[in-house]
Amino acid sequence: MKRSVGVTVWAVLLIIAGLLGTVGATVSLSMGQRSLDRLTQSVEQMKSLPIGTEAGQVPPERMAQLRVRLEGLVQQVRKATESPVVRTTTALAALLSLAALAAGIGLFFLKRWARTAAMWQAGCSIALGLFVTLFSPQRELTEATLRVYEGLIDPQAQQMMHTGQTIGQWLGLLVLLVWNGFILWYFIRPSVKAQFLSSKD
Fold first, then answer.
1. What are the C-alpha distances in Å from 94 to residues 6, 24, 99, 101?
2. What integer is the mean pLDDT of 93-114?
3. C-alpha R_g of the chain
4. Confidence class of residue 184 from pLDDT cuts 50, 70 and 90?
5. Strand partners, 51
6. Is residue 120 within 8 Å of residue 99, measured between CB atoms?
7. Fewest beta carbons less than 10 Å away: which of 54, 72, 102, 117?
């Protein structure tokens, strides 16, 4: 049977998403320690800032407050970097991206296993996305980052940052649910399934 336009489009989209996801997860795994080193370096550089009450100087009480919060943030980043949960979920994300890439390639040739792989990776991606959003230590890291700015910037600006962070987090989850939910809906349709029935794989 001839491959439909819809299957072709999803094949291209899954290949692109698989490539981007694999690269992103790989970079995330390799950059964790580097990010921690940069943050630690920033805390050390902060100690050289001029302290005092004159113009261009940082008030002592504010400097002490900022130092405590940044050191707390360093601990949170270290915790997230070394967390087995974070490393495992990132590795799983990389594997699911590879599965999407393989499924996309297989869809071009109407391979039966490719349709199954596309649906399985979509379902697993939904489960992983829900877990990361609701239970991952990365949420604590986000909160620690926002706490650094408490009392140091305008409260309204801080609230806008918090709101933007929350909206971004849940919007990302919504996109993930819609994207993968549509994959499941599309490939479970009888008219689409029929295109793969003649495949021997």
1. 25, 8, 9, 11
2. 94
3. 23
4. very high
5. 58
6. yes
7. 54
* Amino acid present at 9: V
- Whole-number Cα distances in Å, 52 to 60, 64, 121, 154, 188: 6, 12, 57, 21, 67
The answer to whether 161 touches 149, Cβ cutoff 8 Å, is yes
Per-chain mean pLDDT for the chain: 81
The token duo for 32 is 């964790």
Q: How far apart are CA 45 and CA 195, in angstroms?
A: 62
Helix or strand or coil: residue 73?
helix
How far does CA 129 lie from the centroid of its chain? 8
Task: Give the chain's length.
Answer: 201
Please tell me whether residue 136 adopts helix, strand or coil conformation: coil
Q: List, in sequence order, the alpha helices (H) in 47-154.
A: 60-82, 84-108, 112-135, 138-147
User: CA-to-CA distance for 101 and 117, rounded, in angstroms?
Assistant: 10
User: What distance lies between CA 118 and its chain's CA centroid?
Assistant: 20
pTM confidence score:
0.74
- Count CB neighbours of 96 within 10 A: 24
